[in-house]
Amino acid sequence: MAEEAVLGYLEKNSEIRDSGEFAAELGIDHNEIVNVIKSLHGFGYVDAQDIKRETWVLTDEGKTYSSVGSPEVQLFFAIPPEEGISKQDLQVQHVDDKVKDLLLQIQQGLDIASDEIKALKARKLIVPQTWKGYSLKRGPNYAPKRKKVVTDLTRDNFQSGEWKELEFKEYNYSAKGQPLEGGNLHPLLKVRAQLKQIFLCMGFEEMPTNNFVESSFWNFDALFQPQQHPARDSHDTFFLEARSTTKILPEDYVLRVTQVHESGGYGSRGYAYDWKREEANKNLLRTHTTSVSSRMLYQLAQKPFAPKKYFSIDRVFRNEAVDRTHLAEFHQIEGLVCDRGLTLCDLIGVLHDFFSRLGMTKLKFKPAYNPYTEPSMEIFRF
Description:
BirA Bifunctional Protein, domain 2; 2 domains; 3-stranded mixed β-sheet; 12 strands; metal ion binding; tRNA binding
């Protein structure tokens, strides 16, 4: 009804000067007129200009005084005529409630003097209120009735031929889409970020762990795991079929690793077997991030010695049966400290510092045997 009234009026008249007066004349709620104007303006049916008027409205206290009178007048009429003070003693015969009259004038939308406005405002009987409306003229797309625009061209439109008369809605390429609901970090990523920050605060550098595919040389041989070890079988490790072997290994280091495997060295007796290069060349999905550590140690040895502290947190892969508690991949946390004169006490101190930053201060260390990390310990928190 409101839309028909606005478009119909503009068909016979050039403009609507005041949307408030227009709504009052038609007996339509002004908010309904405003909503229609905004819609018609958006589609170019009308040109709308803002109108703002500052008016004064009564507060709750002001509304009370406009109905029952101001407190001073109420006090005057509350004096008993016989037992109280006589009007002769008060030297007042008649009282006009000027405050009530002013409040009633404001309620009726009448203008009053600025001094009286200030007085009522000081008593917090009135507050300013901004009234917003519109003045309207015909827009570039004006029509007595809104045309229905379509957003999709269907098969029925083609078959009936009505596509020739259809008006399509214009695309607004600058309009923003629906706001995306932000996701949350996965619990694993939260833990990973927390542990990474702890290592960084302890002065560690993060090792590059982006090479999920590794050669058997760095994953096993450089860590002096014998080539006949069961962990190197296909039922424990994922070996690659495409790009099954690597072609790039540091030959000088390969030679030294071969000698230690076959005949020992550096305090080791070796394994006394024929080490095979083709086994070391096999590519696989790394079974531990220690393969990254072996690369970093080799790179560190190519430069003049300097103390270093490294860490890594990333995925590793094992050919294990998948069930509710096992996956074919998991995360490994690894730390590495390189310096001269380090002892087991230094390792215990680093572990104490690390776990204390997680809120674990009471730790107990128990000796344990692991063939590739000797000496080894188990850590208990209590």
